[in-house]
Write a structure and sequence with these properties.
mainly beta; Methylamine Dehydrogenase, Chain H; 342 residues; 1 helix; 2 domains
Length: 342
């Protein structure tokens, strides 16, 4: 017969061993099972391209990417299939945003000198130039109406409209100051106006600002993304904040810390994730738990100044432009999203 003291000692020993095993599992499991939300899927070197980038556009069927190399004064055209540079179009003044239109085979490139330059997307020959009073920055295109919206201004602010079917300039919609990123949502246009620290809500039908939503999370509201299904607008602020707005009410429902210098905010509806590319040297990944609740789940290291990005849902790819570093040339990095770890 096993006496009580012996049985008690055995039980204590088994408990100690069990706890040690559980501790080992708990310590080692995350390292063994952790999977990043984004994994590298290749890169395209851009030797000779100096300085920072602005925005880009993709020809998904043709496997081409058009990248505005702002400080280099060029438009870089990349072959995504061959992972090579096809062409570099120089001689521009701070190229900012790019829009590619397959139905007309045209490229539209906004410039810091107030010009929107067009190019044949097949031959790359220059075409029509649209001129505005001051800097032409962000571009958005409505395929239904054929309208190209242009954020303009440096000492003032407005949204200009180009009818790309007739190449006729429409009216300019005045803003409180110069606009940064904006997005189209039916009749509405949401516009980040950083110097006013608000979002201007423009009615396309009325041709004017119908509301302004203050951004309380932080100053310098620059990039934005949109979840049209849940009616949520995501606004990145340069000091390192992501604010979430309800577009049905204009209410800022929450905000959270992110890395500094965000410049790209992209909503991945398939995975309910938000990818934020930040000049501080990270891609932050934010999980949408539901329409009102969000949590940053990852900071993926990239490179200082790598803030320009584009998420293409139909390709399931995130593209990130990385400026030249001391020992490495500029490059376009390609990421493949994965489902987040449970």
């Amino acid at each position: 017969m096993v006496t009580y003291p012996v049985r008690a000692a055995v039980n204590v020993l088994l408990w100690i061993v069990g706890q040690a095993v559980l501790a080992t599992i708990a310590f080692s499991a995350p390292a063994a099972t952790a999977v990043r939300s984004l994994e590298p899927a290749g890169a395209i070197a851009l030797p000779g391209v100096k300085g920072g980038f602005d925005l880009m556009a993709v020809d998904a069927p043709g496997q081409r990417l058009f990248l505005a190399a702002e400080e280099n004064g060029s438009l870089e055209i990349l072959d995504l299939k061959a992972r090579a540079r096809l062409k570099s179009i120089g001689g521009m003044d701070e190229p900012k945003w790019v829009v590619y239109r397959p139905e007309s085979h045209r490229l539209f490139v906004s410039n810091g000198d107030g010009k929107v330059r067009t190019f044949d997307a097949i031959t790359y020959a220059p075409g029509r130039i649209f001129e505005f009073r001051e800097k032409a920055n962000n571009l958005r295109f409505d395929a239904t109406t054929g309208e190209l919206f242009v954020g303009i201004g440096k000492k003032f602010g407005a949204l200009a409209i180009i009818n790309t079917r007739t190449d006729i300039l429409g009216v300019e919609i005045p803003l409180a100051d110069f606009p940064k990123q904006f997005d189209l949502d039916g009749d509405r246009i949401y516009v980040n106006v950083p110097t006013a620290n608000h979002i201007a809500v423009v009615s396309r039908a009325q041709g004017k600002v119908i509301a302004t939503w203050p951004v309380r999370a932080a100053k310098d509201n620059i990039p934005m993304g949109l979840d049209r299904v849940s009616h949520r607008l995501f606004v990145g602020c340069e000091p390192g904040k992501l604010a979430v707005f309800d577009t049905t009410t204009g209410r800022e429902i929450t905000s959270l810390d992110i890395s500094g210098e965000p410049d790209g905010v992209h909503y991945d509806a398939k995975r309910h994730l938000i990818y934020v590319s930040c000049g501080a040297g990270f891609i932050d990944v934010v999980r949408q738990q539901d329409a009102d609740h969000y949590a940053r789940i990852e900071q993926i290291p990239t490179a200082k100044g790598a803030a320009t990005s584009l998420f293409v849902a139909e390709q399931d790819r995130l593209y990130l432009a990385v400026p030249a570093q001391a020992a490495t040339p500029a490059e376009l990095r390609i990421f493949r999203p994965r489902a987040p770890s449970p």
